Amino acid sequence: MDERTTILSERLSELISGYLMGTLGAEEVDEVENWINSSSENMQIFREVLNEKDLQEMGRQFRHIDVESDLMIVRAKLGPDPTTDRQSTGKHKLWRYGIAAAVATIIFGAGLLYFKNQQQTSPEIAPGKQGATLTLANGKKIRLGEVSDGKLANESGVEISKLANGQLIYEIKENSAESVKINTLTTAKGETYRVRLPDGSLVYLNAASSLTYSSALNERGKRSVRLDGEGYFEVSKDKKHPFVVETRGQSIEVLGTHFNVNAYKDEPQIATTLLEGSVKVSVKGKTQLIRPGQQVVNYGGRLQVNEVSLDDITDWKEGDFFLNHVDFKTAMRKIARWYDVVIVYDEAVPEDLESGGWMSRRNNLSTVLKAIEDTGLARFRIEGKTVHVFK
């Protein structure tokens, strides 16, 4: 190519690249469109640029521009190709190829720069960790991840301590006639914690959850707690004192058993799953007994019993995401709670998607999202603490 052709090629490459990326001003847009429409030769050159597979692939790789959608819009404007069967001379074909390659290179460079900027402005989002806030009866808040191990407080003869393994312990040291002292253990998004109650029962709290209870636990002959969010209970046997878990709109009564309760406010139902022993779920005057391996789902007062895989239910407790045959948006809510992010869906994402697979909750967020992308289920873009979801 001579010098004039090279300069023209560079100018066209820059203009066409900006045209596809939407970065041109009004005058430059007119310049490109006037050039395209000035001759069938120019329109053919532009069509050949649009047909570059590398250009489309780069647009998919660097998702800051939706090249595929842009190409559809531009092709619709151009209408049917009247020159499809024409053969280009060697000289013109080489020139067209040079423009297409240059356009791809410019967009690739822009994508690479964007990718680097994203790495700088959007640091890797790490998985959640062990942590919680304990609110005592007097209103004092203790950030358990920030205090030393050992004794934290004494309420009504009950000693509250933090162990080195990240567990909260309640021990009755003396009987007291003082009034009931109410405590609340709260996990934020991206936190999980364990508490051993005075009766020896162990409760695991998932992210964005809270457990409220008397520091002595017993109230009027019952061991009563209130759960918001999700918790896994290993209840010590005590035939004289039933263990009652209150959630929004229902109660669960047991004597000694292992079970999981999912009662997040942003979920459409409350799910109680039994691993061993027996539980009785009560809601609006109705009760339902379930056996190990069963789950009772509360749909606004309507109870339904299902046989379930227990691994699916206790995945979070074991440090995993088990997402096989799980509603996609339900799976994304799990991910959002653990990584403390906000999920924003493109309107093209269907409502009936179903996820699959298994992933460790110990991975960084990008690793989890990449695994989902590899299935072809959805695409993601992370901006700060927001995850955009595309189909």
Mean pLDDT: 78
Please count the beta strands (DSSP E, at least 2 residues each): 26
Structural class comes to: alpha+beta
Strand content: 25-35%
Classify the oligomer.
single chain
Instruction: State the CATH class of the largest domain.
Output: Mainly Beta
* CATH-derived architecture of the largest domain: Sandwich
Largest sheet: 19 strands, mixed
The CATH topology name of the largest domain reads: Jelly Rolls
Q: Could you tell me how far the N terminus lies from the C terminus, measured between alpha carbons in angstroms?
A: 42 Å
Report helical residue fraction.
Answer: 25-40%
Organism: Pedobacter africanus
Protein name: Ferric-dicitrate binding protein FerR (Iron transport regulator)
Summarize the structure in words.
The protein is α+β, with helices and mostly antiparallel strands and 391 residues long. The chain folds into 3 domains: 3-121, no CATH class; 129-313, Jelly Rolls, CATH 2.60.120.1440; 320-390, Phage tail protein beta-alpha-beta fold (3-Layer(bab) Sandwich). The chain has helices spanning 3-21, 26-37, 40-50, 53-61, 67-78, 90-121, 310-313, 328-339, 365-374; strands spanning 129-130, 133-135, 141-143, 150-155, 158-162, 167-172, 182-187, 191-196, 202-205, 209-219, 222-234, 243-247, 250-254, 258-263, 270-276, 279-283, 286-290, 294-299, 302-307, 320-322, 326-327, 342-345, 354-355, 358-360, 379-383, 386-390. The strands form 4 sheets. The chain has a 19-stranded mixed beta sheet that branches. Strand 25 (379-383) and strand 26 form a beta hairpin. Helix 3 (40-50) packs across helix 6. Residues 1-8, 52-99 and 106-120 have low confidence and may be disordered. This is Ferric-dicitrate binding protein FerR (Iron transport regulator).
